[in-house]
Amino acid sequence: MSWIWLLLVLVGFIAGTVGSLVGLGGGIVIVPSLLVIAQLYPEFSNITPAVAVGTSLLLVILTSLSSTLFFAKQKRVDFQSGWLFFIGSGPGAMVGAYLTRYFQSDYFFIAFGLFMIFISILISLKDRLPQKKVRWDVFRTFEDGSGNKYEYGYHRLTVVILSFFVGIISGLFGIGGGSLLVPIMIMLFCFPPHVATATSMFIILLSSSLGTVTNIIQGNIHWLSALLLAPGAWMGGKAGAWISSKLSGRGLLIALRLALVLVAIRMIMKGSHLA
Q: Which GO terms describe its cellular component (predicted)?
């Protein structure tokens, strides 16, 4: 049991670091890791895909709380915008968590993975694409802890609708939702990368909490693994936030693209029954 304890702490730390670094939440590491552990260790054999997703979403709360507290000290979190995104993503996460009991479509996993690769390519080409103005009804001026000022905006109804579907993805796959949320914030609403990743973690904290309530009601939490993952997830959340603060906006975009490719590979493998 000592080896599995160390393994799960390490998994939690890696998940927390990767998740908070680019605003994804960490589920891309936790879910496949739990499914592999379930096959290797008899005491964890009752971890089904739905339980892995539910446990992952619970750990995402710790990761996002840890990093949000760090980002808040740096004044990188746009709380006002974050609450608006949560209006859509919160209910969406509960719907997604509920749908885990019915969802068995392999083709959707593959399609989702390919879509993530497409998003990664779009981010790579963002500055080369023709700029198309989006009709905004909110214009934001945001100043971070370093005195940097940013201007961006969004359309309220568009934010709520998009974030609702992002919330469903979050609850369904246990990945926190940032894999879609951060690209949407950067590409559609012109959020600066540092503000987008930090604000994304705050939104993920709120929506994952609601999704976890649904998973607890359905019994989709493996409490022993959650307990062992928790210390690493908390420390990793702080580590990822610290690394993020040291990267430039360009560096963050590179890290985001790599993380999106990891999400894509994970989903395609799952749909192909390789994970």
A: plasma membrane
Of the listed ranges 66-80, 100-114, 151-165, 214-228, the one predicted with least confidence: 100-114
Three-state DSSP at 273 gives coil
Q: Can you tell me the mean pLDDT for 249-274?
A: 72
Q: Are residues 67 and 20 in contact, defined by beta-carbon separation less than 8 angstroms?
A: yes
pTM of the model: 0.77
- Distance separating alpha carbons of residues 27 and 37, to the nearest angstrom: 15
Region at 174 (left for phi over 0; alpha for psi -120 to 50; beta for the rest)? left
Q: In this prediction, what percent of the chain has a pLDDT beyond 90? A: 16
**Domains identified in the chain, total number:** 1
